[in-house]
Amino acid sequence: MDATQIPTNPFKPTWKPLTELHIHAGGGLPASTMWTIAHQQGIRLPFEDYWDFKDAITITRAKMMDLDEFLHSPKNPFHWCEMIQSSPEAMEHTIYEMAAKAYRKCNVDTLDIRFTPMKRNRKGEKDLDHIIAGALRGLDRVMLEYPIRVGLIFCLEKGFPAHLNEITVDKAIKYKSRGIVGIDLTGLDSGNKFNADEMAPIFHKAKAAGLGVTVHAGEGPEQLSVKDAITKLGADRIGHGIDSIHHPEELELIQKHDIVMEFCPTSNIILGLLNGPEDCKNVVNTWMAHGIKFTVNSDDPIFFETNIKLEYNFLRENGVLTDKQLDQCTAIARKASFLNR
Predict the structure, then answer these.
(1) Using CA atoms, how far apart are residues 70 and 54, in angstroms rounded to an integer?
(2) Distances (CA, A) of 53 to 59, 81, 89, 307
(3) Calpha distance 38→32 (Å, rounded)
């Protein structure tokens, strides 16, 4: 039997390796894994059984909610995920399992994972360095076991006092050589109280240290603008950024500065920011018409019951992007990963 006749492994993915840039640790694990971690730590959950827990942290199209409700309401699934992940052991388990699952299930070989360390230390009860060390252990383990490159992005929060966000940046710089590759800014604008000018020095400090900068901006018209994320915070990439299609000056700015957009289709649809495939097509067609680079991502796969492979399939099957265009998205993502810094 020659090499061309050797049967392929039926369990190994046959599609090309993928890259994901926008996935949150809080929404990145299967519900079953979160349930196991909670019980390993003796966390008392107010759910009758596993299925009630899964229902509470899953947001299907039948349970659509807006962005404010998703982040702040009593139904907010992040609350339970952050509580369950608030220990060094839980963060090690989380990062390891997320990356391993991405490789095994979706053939992802380059992955930027983001999380907010300050939401994993139980408001100071746990030592922040131990939380980070746990995440780094998970990072080391998964890259020993699988042919995957993984970098961690620390999230700052719009609603946090400036000194807490600066501590997060200092920790990112401290552990840069261990696998911290960038910072992000997440959360709602807290009733327009967020001030990008006041946050700017913290972001410039991170950039000067060689960290990548991505910013959640332009998710909706009331959120931090893409323009401010680029001009004031020095963003290299924009998380979501779909509102930019309504602002010609922002489209020009994105193209001029060679900013990469992190598009998350299913997330944007379920949270009511886009109405479906036609809206997705309008977003990507507008970006392409202006020469803007963009990537495809899953955002919070545990909440939206998705993954990067399903996102690609959704865009392909609904005629939003062709195979060639999706390959271009992968190539852009691979180059734009902060691991390359």
Answers:
(1) 16
(2) 12, 11, 21, 20
(3) 10
User: In angstroms, how far is CA 231 from the centroid of its own chain?
Assistant: 22
Does residue 124 have a pLDDT over 90? no
| DSSP assignment of 92-153 | HHHHHHHHHHHHHHH-EEEEEEEE-GGGSSGGGTS-HHHHHHHHHHHHHHHHHHSS-EEEEE
16-340 under CATH 3.30.365.10, yes or no: no
Half-sphere exposure of 36 (CA within 13 A, CB side): 9
Taking phi over 0 as left and psi of -120 to 50 as alpha, with beta for the rest, 37 belongs to: alpha
Place of tokens 């990548």: 212
| pLDDT tens digit sequence for 49-74 | 999 999 888 876 555 556 666 665 55
Return phi, psi of residue 209, to 5°.
-85, 0
Evaluate whether 154 touches 172 at the Cβ level (below 8 Å): yes
The first and second tokens of residue 153, run together, are 């992005």
Distance CA 29, CA 23 (A): 10
* Domain map (residue ranges) of the chain: 16-340
CA distance 310 to 280: 15
DSSP state for residue 251 in the 8-state scheme = H
The Cα 156–Cα 187 span in angstroms is: 9
What is the rounded distance in angstroms from the CA atom of residue 20 to the CA atom of residue 260? 13
- On whether the pTM is more than 0.90, the answer is yes
CB contact at 8 A, 297 and 20: yes
Q: Would you say 92 and 132 are in contact if contact means Cβ atoms under 8 Å apart?
A: no
Of residues 297, 101, 311, 303, the one with CA closest to residue 184: 297
